[in-house]
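Support reply, case 0932

Customer input (verbatim):
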Amino acid sequence: MKRGAQVGSEREGLACDYLQDSGLCLLARNYRCRRGEIDLVMREGKILVFVEVRFRASPRFGTPAETVDIHKQRRLAAAAAHYLRYHPTRLPCRFDVVAVSGTDRIDWIRNAFSVE
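Our regenerated output:
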């Protein structure tokens, strides 16, 4: 049986491949700072995209996307602010969520939430 971290890493790789096949360019993977982590930092044309990858083996307790609650959004925003502090850019930014189901179905939610 696979451990959670291994399964998560595999699904993250699956999501990354999917986004790259869709034309995005990978800039960083698992960007970590004291305030949080961003699974994937990518670029789509002239937009910087911070991507949260969520996996749920079963929809019994909700969809993967539903796990990106306001607390997770705040942690992602804080990590994104840290990234931008050390990688300044004039590009507009957005937050996407890639939800992966137990059957490896991928739902890409562009501009999943905004930060104020």
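We compared this against your earlier run and they match. Two observations from our side: The beta strands are 25-33, 36-44, 47-56, 93-101, 106-113. The chain has two helices and five strands. Please reopen the case if you see a mismatch on your end.
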